[in-house]
Amino acid sequence: MIYDRKALSVFYCDFLKNDLMRFWKNAMDHEYGGIYTCYSNDGSMRLSTDKYVWSQGRVIWMLARYAELIDKGLIDDDRQLYLAHARKTYEFIKKNAVLNEEEGVCAYLLERDGTKKESIPGKGFYTSFYVDCFVIMGFAELARVSGEKGPLEDALQLYDRTQAYLNRGEIVSEPYPIPKGYSAHAVPMIMCNVASVLYDALKAFKHNRYQQIFGDAKGFMNRILNYHYDKERGLIKEMVSEDPSNKDTLMVRHIIPGHAVESMWFCTKVAKDSNAGDEIYNKIARIVKNSIKTGWDKEYGGLYHYADRNGGKPAGRMINEPYDISVTETWDTKLWWPHAEALYTTLLCYDLTGDKEFMDLYQMVSEYAFNVFPNPNKDIGEWIQIRDCQNKPLEKVVALPVKDPYHIIRDVMLIIELL
After folding, report:
1. Hey, is 198 helix, strand or coil?
2. Secondary structure class of 334 (helix, strand, coil)
């Protein structure tokens, strides 16, 4: 494959503005802030006006970063529209989703006007620390791009509150709580990204805590690349247990290929910022290659949602927790987000290493993704995000009952910046 950066850049710029952002521009709630995300998989029907804060925090990051692309001249679009809506969404989240200390950090679910809702009856409003993470990143990115310090101080306060929960071991992650006795890669993974985004914003403001937060980011990166590293297979262990009796469980054996690939570009960002040596980059490159190869469906193509560490269907003793039930029920679905992450990460690794195998992997992922996911109804656009094993559209809830803009738009913006 000839690596034509200019042609790829033109392609992704057009895809971002005239397909992806066209769909989500029409999903903005101009009255209250935020966007609507509860659509059918093909985007033809809006099913609810509820707002999952997980997605709304992501939207702030996405809109602010898109405005910055316009500032840089990489995209020709209405900067003020997107930055203004990022601010409006920030204000909506700050007013309605940020909880009192006694309640938690951020609410999981809001009605259209900001009224809090329990996502799981009886569980209260605070049910997932991942929501906090996306709100922190949204606030921080808005501050960095806009130059407004208020969202940055809010992000820092939320970060400290979230860290306090983690330090106490009080991690809430409904609807799939981390089973007792296991350590999840997802925790240092998301916190590595959070600390890195927050660090960038703090550094832009010459804030006196930017070095401390960067130290946190490096700590999370090291946790991923050491504690969660399967040295024998060159993979990321999604769950680790110190209890030898758990070594035969599905929890210990399964991997999430998309998670590992996404996590590696988080680690790459921190490694580059800390002027890391080749040893880290070589480990990252090995993990990316092996995650894609191990998680690839050799019959129908595409990355499995979950896979066994030796490839194929996850195996091992069930412990009958919601998490491992989710693994067995959705393992062979083909989701948009792992493929979006793989598009960016393979190009990033090629730029880092010059290893042509990454271009081969990019080509494989690209041909699959752009053949399978784009909506055939061009009037609607975007991607049909959830597919079954044989790549047919699937109306099934995986994680959140939403059509989420984040992964694909974030990765396309990062690709454009990289190119």
Report:
1. helix
2. strand
Q: Each residue of 213-245: pLDDT tens digit? A: 999 999 999 999 999 999 999 999 999 999 999
One-letter amino acid at 234 equals G
Report in angstroms the alpha-carbon separations of 39 from 7, 118, 230, 390: 32, 20, 38, 22
> pLDDT tens, 309-322?
999 999 999 999 99
- As a whole number of angstroms, the distance between CA 142 and CA 136 comes to 10
Distance CA 418, CA 213 (A): 25
User: Mind giving me the DSSP string for 247-298?
Assistant: TTBHHHHEE-HHHHHHHHHHHHHHHHHTT--HHHHHHHHHHHHHHHHHHB-T
Cα separation, 402 vs 397, whole angstroms = 8
Neighbour count for residue 130 (Cβ, 10 Å): 23
What 3-state class would DSSP assign to 299? coil
Residues 6+ apart with CB under 8 A from 67: 79, 82, 83, 86, 145
Can you give the pTM of this predicted structure? 0.97
Residue 326 class from Cβ within 10 Å (0-12 exposed, 13-18 middle, 19+ buried)? middle
Q: Please state the φ and ψ torsions of residue 109, each to the nearest 5 degrees.
A: -145, 135
How many residues comprise the chain?
419
